[in-house]
Every structure is written in structure tokens, then in C-alpha cells.
């Protein structure tokens, strides 16, 4: 069976090349979370495209390197003269600090040739080079998976070349808040390019939410938590927490060579408790904060001096950037100070290594570690935490984990979460971890071990690929259309010639005064009928040829207050409650109730359930409840707070739901339906109360300032949809199927769907404001009285 081909594109290849002769090369495995994660992609024939870690300028060297890398499934990208300003410049001097909340750095002052623009030009040129390599090796049907901020322009180049190409983009770092991202000079170009991808992925809901908000704020794109629409192109956004390949670490930890390393290290450390740090030497990893917290711990715990060792493995990265030399010097200074204060002739409290170590040695250290200390100031995920959990031996260690690492949401239940900026808090956590009982250590380990085992890199890759396949195999999501300005003369003329008219009005923003602030979602503002419409609406309602419906999200009392004296149909809470002026309110539960929000809410609840031991969620037809009464109370409350933020920013941001927070629960339940589904029941009630109806509805005017989810009411009456003889929408409303063909018979020229104040809509026409609605109703009444 031929495996599908996957082209993985990232800044660096999973190997680093070293030239040993004119045509000879050797390779070493590169460190880093991305390499660890993508080792699990075994179901694809994977080709990895990236920079080999070395500049090669001669043709002989390039050819030899390409041949050698091909045997490893790798394809080199030669960046040559653009590499410095691209990688050390734009990527690591501009994008990296902004994405990690360090702000936009000042331009170089000592070299006029190095500017924001020159670095961005190098970035664009490098992305073009990546594109050329992908184009050279692309075969029809290949999937292209672009990774990280180094290739944000690549999706656009790929789609311009072949719009049918399947393209995904995943960000392995945090995505900053819109206020921080706004400071990037090339902010719009990068967002537009990423949005040309079919699927955009992030580690956490926070990162995805920031990206969606940035697109809305900067590009003016329309968006939900899952879809961003920009320039009539819909892009899916999803969350995929990355994992590791746990079996690789578990099996390696059992090797005899690793066991020997464990014995040796224990002997070398002289029985001292081991606190381990494994980080890139990077400004966002919080290594200085770690040292300051450890110093605080030694100050306040004299009995532990000489009994505990902090071993920090600081893997060098980005050596060409001055800021990283500063952080290196700062770490060395702190180590010297602390060792000088608390060390002795025979031992020092800190061992700092400016290098990486062999994989077997790393697994041995993980296995004997008493405390893994992660103090990241900002981090995409931090897979070191998962690696530590996978390698634990009989005597379990404790994970002290920064709440600013993406792993904080995944592994927080089995860790001690800390704020790395709070030196006292980290110091106390070190003490708590070292003194924790074996039973509690085992309990916390089992929580995290189960998560690491089940959320592998293979699962992460499968989830992303399955979602990408789903997105690209389905028809393109509807993105609305550009409406025309309403031809009021035709509206009035067609109205006067029709025999059975249906007028449908929204309430807020349609029959109320214009909303200057455009706060369309809040129906608690300005909920009074425009005074000049009271008598005009009565005139329309008194015409036996005209049926008027007010369809609103507002509750019954608001509609009663404004329309109680009018002979019309009222639909409160989007049709959940219906009544005619002459009757009582009745409750309706439409068959087609819009429950689109449920799947999104279930995904959020599932996400938090997996990360909150003892919690669970339950789903009914119209509600979802997350319960944490059997979880740790403090952690459960913290998770509930995070959950509420994700819910409101995500799957229910535009949904008609209520969120109720109980003592140990969070519930989301429906409060309304879409206006389109409500119309089915309204028409059913109209037919039931007018059994002698002989003339079908031949004219429909539908005007509203509706939310996107409610715009199905505009398409409900489109001529091609009004042939209900085969599938009546009135079933369940008490309407016989044979009636449906006589209820609605609207020709195209007699149907007017009108949106208020928007030009991106499913409606065919638009009006600027509710003042224009007043003008139109006046014309209808004038024509009627003429």
C-alpha cells in the first residue's frame, strides 16, 4: 500500500550537517520539541524540507549534501547570503520577542544596512527560497505542513502557485495578544498569508483566541472561534496540544546503558537530592529566575544546604544574537554568586552546563531526578515536562511547572504550578516538592503519566492531519455575499400588487433607534420602538392582506411592552415563545433547533476534563454540564475560571446560550433558536389559525440587523427553497403536508431580504440604518392609503 506523501517544512531539518570532506558529510540529531514531536509521523511517506544548519556555497558541496540527506528523507534549503538577516534578524530579533511578549526591539544603530525593512526583505526572500524547494519536489496530492513563525509567508506563495494544494500551518510558540502583535510593522501581511492556509493550528485555546482576535482587529475579518473569513476565504482554526513519543523514552530508560548511567550519576552526586533543569539558553526560559528562586530556597532552608544539587543543562541557541550572550553572562554570574555563597571545597549547589548531552544520559537524569524545575516566562508547550514524566523510575520525582508554559494546562493536575516571576512562590514549591510524601508523588505521577501515554506525538499529528483532510474534503464554507442597495420603489410597487404579504422585522437595530456604537449583540440597550412607527405598524397590521411578524432575541415582556396593542405575530427568544396579539404565549421547541455550539463546547469540556482528574461532563440535547465535585477543589476552581474565558472567547461567542457556574460545575444550555428555524413554526401557527387560507403568500419582505447565525432566515424564503411539496418544513407544527404547497408561492421579484448596517451578509439587499426602515414603512403605508 502506497503511503500518502507529506512535505514537512520548517526552518531547520531534524539533523545538523557537518562537512568532513569535499563531498563528505556527517550528521547529528538536532534538539528541540518539533523534532521530538514529528518523529511520530510514521503513517506518511514524509519528506522534511529545511535548512541543514550550515551555509554551503559551492555546487559540489550542495550536491553531495543533497544526496546524503535524501537517504534520511530530508531536502535541504540553501539560504546563503539571506540567512543572517532572515534567521538572526527578522525571525529571532523581531518575531520571537514579540511572540513571547518581550516587545519590539529597537533598530540597529551601528549599521545603517540592517533595518526592519532589510530584515523583512530577507524574510520574504527566504520564504521564496522555501517555496521554490517545495515547488520543485511537490507532487499532485501531496500535503504540505508548514511549521512555525519562520515560514508565515509560505502558505500564500503555495496557494498562489496551486490553490488546490492542501496546506496546513502550525505555530509552536505562543501567539501574543492583539495589543502586542499590533506592534509588528508587517503585521497585516503575515496574517493574510497565514489565512490562505486551509488549517491553522495552535497549542492552546489562549494562543488560538489571540490569533482570531488579531485577525478581527487588524484585518477586519469576520470570525468565530473555529473559522476566520477574510476576503471571502474561510480558514479553519483549531487547537492541537503537542505531545512526545512516550514509548521512545520509556524503552530507552530501561536500557542497560541508561541504568549504568543512573548508578554513576547517583554516585557522582553523593546522595544529594537532584533538581534538574533542561532548557534552551533562551531569554524566555526563565533560567535566571530559577537560580534566584533556588538561592532563596538555600537562604531559608539551612538544613538543605549541601543536601541538594541543581543541575541545569542550558543548550546553546542563537549564538549570533547579542541578547543571548547577555542571558548567558547573567546565568554564569548568578551561578558563580550562589556557588560562592553556599558551596564548599567538596561540592557546589549548582552545576551549569552550556551544552546538550547524549539522549541516554538525559533519560538517566530524568529517571533519578527528584524535582524537575520548569520556570518558563513564556513557552509554546515545553515537552521537557512530558519527557520527564515518561522516564520516571521506581522513585518518582515531582514536576514544578510554570503556569506560563503551554504544558501547564496539560500537566497542571499532576504538577506544582508556579508563577516564575514570584521568586518566593517558586522557592516554596521547591521545598514542598522535596518534602512531598512518596504516596503523593506517586499519585501526581500517575495523573500525568496517563496523559503523556495517551496524548502522544502520533495522536497530535493524526488529529492535525484528520482535521486538515476534513477541511479540504468538504465544500468551501459559505462566506456570505455582497448585497445591493434596496430598491425601495420596487419594494413598494410589488407590495401594492400582491395579494398575501408577509412582512418580517427584526427588533433591535431594525425597529429601534439606530445604534451608534454597533453593539449588535446586546439587546439590553435601546429596546424601545421608534415612536413614529407605532401608528404606522398598526396601519400595516390592519390590512387583511398583510401579516406582520416581529422576530427577536428579546424576551416576552419586552415584545409585549412594545407591540402589545398591535395585531401581529411575536416571536420572543428567537422563536422559543410565540404568540399572536389575540392569544397567549406558547412554548415551541423546533425540530431544527440550532445546536451548533454543542460540539465546540464539548471539545472545550473534553479538553479540561482530560486535564482535571476527577472531573467529568454530561451532554443532553440542549445543554452540556462540566462537573468537578470529585476533583481537587482548588485546582477545579482554577480550571473553571480558565474554562469560562475559553467558552466566551470561543465556541459560544456568537451562540444563543446561557452559562451558569455552580459551586462545582459549569453548565451551558440553550436559550433560543435561529430565526430561520423559528420561521417554520411561525408559518405553521399562521396556517393553523387561518384554516380558511385560500391565497398563498406571494410577497415576502424580511428586514433585520441579525447575527450571523440568524441569517438563515434570509435564505428560508428564497424562491428555490419555497417548493415544500416534497419536504415540508411545517412537519411537527401541526401543518398537514398537503398545505405546504399552498402556503408559500413567492416569485424571485417578490422576495426582498434586507440586512441593516452590513454589507457582508446572506441577504440580497441592505439599508444603512433603522432610520431607512422607518422611511420604507412610511412609503408602504402611504401607498396602501393612496
TrEMBL record:
The keyword Glycosyltransferase applies. GO terms for biological process: trehalose metabolic process. The keyword Transferase applies. It holds the Pfam family Trehalose_PPase. Keywords: Glycosyltransferase, Transferase. It is an enzyme of class 2 (transferase). One of its GO terms (molecular function) is alpha,alpha-trehalose-phosphate synthase (UDP-forming) activity. InterPro entries: Glyco_trans_20, HAD-like_sf, HAD_sf, Trehalose_PPase. Its EC number is 2.4.1.15. PANTHER family: ALPHA,ALPHA-TREHALOSE-PHOSPHATE SYNTHASE [UDP-FORMING] 4-RELATED, TREHALOSE-6-PHOSPHATE SYNTHASE. In the N-terminal section; belongs to the glycosyltransferase 20 family. NCBIfam families: PRK14501.1 (NF011071). This is alpha,alpha-trehalose-phosphate synthase (UDP-forming). It comes from Eruca vesicaria subsp. sativa.
Amino acid at each position: 500500500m502506497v503511503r500518502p506523501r507529506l512535505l514537512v517544512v520548517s526552518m531547520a531539518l531534524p539533523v545538523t550537517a557537518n562537512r568532513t570532506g569535499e563531498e563528505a558529510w556527517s550528521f547529528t540529531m538536532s534538539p528541540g520539541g518539533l523534532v521530538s514531536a514529528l518523529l511520530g509521523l510514521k503513517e506518511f511517506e514524509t519528506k522534511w524540507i529545511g535548512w541543514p544548519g550550515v551555509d554551503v556555497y559551492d555546487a559540489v558541496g550542495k550536491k553531495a549534501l543533497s544526496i546524503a540527506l535524501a537517504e534520511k528523507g530530508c531536502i535541504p534549503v540553501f539560504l546563503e547570503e539571506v540567512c543572517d538577516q532572515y534567521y538572526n534578524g527578522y525571525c529571532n530579533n523581531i518575531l520571537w520577542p514579540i511572540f513571547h511578549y518581550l516587545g519590539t526591539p529597537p533598530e540597529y544603530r551601528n549599521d545603517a544596512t540592517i533595518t526592519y525593512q532589510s530584515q523583512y526583505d530577507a524574510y520574504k526572500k527566504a520564504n521564496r527560497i522555501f517555496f521554490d524547494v517545495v515547488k520543485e519536489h511537490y507532487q499532485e496530492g501531496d500535503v504540505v505542513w508548514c511549521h512555525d513563525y519562520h515560514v508565515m509567508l509560505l502558505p500564500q506563495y503555495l496557494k498562489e502557485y496551486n490553490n488546490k494544494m492542501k496546506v496546513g500551518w502550525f505555530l509552536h510558540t505562543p501567539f501574543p495578544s492583539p495589543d502586542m502583535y499590533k506592534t509588528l510593522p508587517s503585521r497585516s501581511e503575515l496574517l493574510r498569508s497565514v489565512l490562505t492556509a486551509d488549517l491553522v493550528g495552535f497549542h492552546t485555546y489562549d494562543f488560538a483566541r489571540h490569533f482570531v482576535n488579531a485577525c478581527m482587529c487588524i484585518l477586519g475579518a469576520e470570525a468565530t472561534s473555529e473559522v476566520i473569513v477574510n476576503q471571502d476565504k474561510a480558514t479553519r482554526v483549531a487547537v492541537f496540544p503537542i505531545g512526545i513519543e512516550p514509548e521512545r523514552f520509556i524503552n530507552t530508560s530501561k536500557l542497560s546503558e541508561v541504568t549504568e548511567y543512573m548508578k554513576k550519576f547517583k554516585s557522582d552526586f553523593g546522595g544529594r537530592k537532584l533538581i534538574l533543569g533542561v532548557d534552551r539558553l533562551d531569554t524566555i526560559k526563565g533560567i535566571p529566575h530559577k537560580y534566584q528562586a533556588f538561592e532563596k530556597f538555600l537562604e531559608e532552608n539551612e538544613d538543605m544546604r549541601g543536601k541538594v544539587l541543581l543541575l541545569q543543562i542550558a543548550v546553546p541557541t542563537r549564538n549570533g544574537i547579542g541578547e543571548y550572550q547577555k542571558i548567558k553572562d547573567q546565568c554564569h554570574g548568578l551561578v558563580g554568586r550562589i556557588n560562592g555563597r553556599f558551596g564548599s571545597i567538596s561540592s557546589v549547589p549548582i552545576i551549569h552546563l552550556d551544552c546538550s548531552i547524549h539522549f541516554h544520559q538525559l533519560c538517566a537524569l530524568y529517571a533519578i531526578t527528584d524535582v524537575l524545575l520548569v520556570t518558563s516566562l513564556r513557552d509554546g508547550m515545553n515537552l521537557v515536562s512530558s519527557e520527564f514524566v515518561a522516564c520516571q523510575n521506581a522513585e518518582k520525582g515531582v514536576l514544578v511547572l510554570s503556569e506560563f508554559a503551554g504544558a501547564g494546562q496539560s500537566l497542571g493536575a499532576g504538577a506544582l504550578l508556579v508563577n516564575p516571576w514570584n521568586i518566593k512562590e517558586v522557592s516554596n514549591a521547591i521545598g514542598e516538592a522535596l518534602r512531598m510524601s512518596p504516596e503523593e508523588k506517586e499519585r501526581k505521577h500517575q495523573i500525568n503519566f496517563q496523559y503523556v501515554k495517551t496524548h502522544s506525538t502520533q495522536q497530535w499529528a493524526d488529529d492535525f492531519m484528520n482535521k486538515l483532510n476534513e477541511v479540504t474534503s468538504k465544500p468551501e464554507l459559505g462566506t456570505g455575499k455582497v448585497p445591493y442597495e434596496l430598491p425601495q420603489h420596487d419594494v413598494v410597487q410589488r407590495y401594492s400588487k400582491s395579494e398575501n404579504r408577509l412582512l418580517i422585522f427584526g427588533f433591535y437595530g431594525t425597529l429601534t433607534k439606530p445604534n451608534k456604537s454597533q453593539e449588535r449583540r446586546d439587546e439590553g440597550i435601546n429596546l424601545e420602538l421608534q415612536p413614529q412607527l407605532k401608528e404606522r405598524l398598526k396601519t400595516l397590521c390592519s390590512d387583511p392582506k398583510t401579516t406582520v411578524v416581529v422576530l427577536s432575541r428579546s424576551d416576552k415582556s419586552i415584545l409585549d411592552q412594545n407591540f402589545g396593542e398591535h395585531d401581529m405575530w411575536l416571536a420572543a427568544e428567537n422563536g422559543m415563545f410565540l404568540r399572536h396579539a389575540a392569544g397567549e404565549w406558547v412554548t415551541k421547541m423546533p425540530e431544527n433547533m440550532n445546536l451548533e455550539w454543542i460540539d465546540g463546547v464539548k471539545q472545550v469540556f473534553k479538553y479540561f476534563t482530560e486535564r482535571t482528574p476527577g472531573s467529568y461532563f454530561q451532554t443532553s440535547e440542549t445543554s452540556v454540564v462540566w462537573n468537578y465535585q470529585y476533583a481537587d477543589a482548588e485546582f477545579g476552581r482554577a480550571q473553571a475560571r480558565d474554562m469560562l474565558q475559553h467558552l466566551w472567547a470561543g465556541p459560544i461567542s456568537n451562540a444563543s446560550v446561557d452559562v451558569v457556574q455552580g459551586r462545582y460545575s459549569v453548565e451551558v444550555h440553550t436559550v433560543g433558536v435561529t430565526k430561520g428555524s423559528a420561521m417554520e413554526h411561525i408559518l405553521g401557527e399562521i396556517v393553523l389559525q387561518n384554516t380558511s387560507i385560500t391565497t398563498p403568500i406571494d410577497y415576502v419582505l424580511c428586514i433585520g440587523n441579525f447575527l450571523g447565525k440568524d441569517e438563515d432566515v434570509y435564505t428560508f424564503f428564497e424562491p428555490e427553497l419555497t417548493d415544500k411539496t416534497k419536504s415540508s418544513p411545517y412537519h411537527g407544527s401541526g401543518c398537514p403536508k398537503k398545505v405546504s404547497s399552498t402556503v408559500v408561492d413567492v416569485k424571485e421579484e417578490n422576495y426582498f431580504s434586507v440586512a441593516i448596517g452590513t454589507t457582508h451578509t446572506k441577504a440580497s439587499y441592505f439599508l444603512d440604518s433603522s432610520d431607512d426602515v422607518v422611511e420604507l414603512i412610511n412609503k408602504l403605508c402611504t401607498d396602501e392609503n393612496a
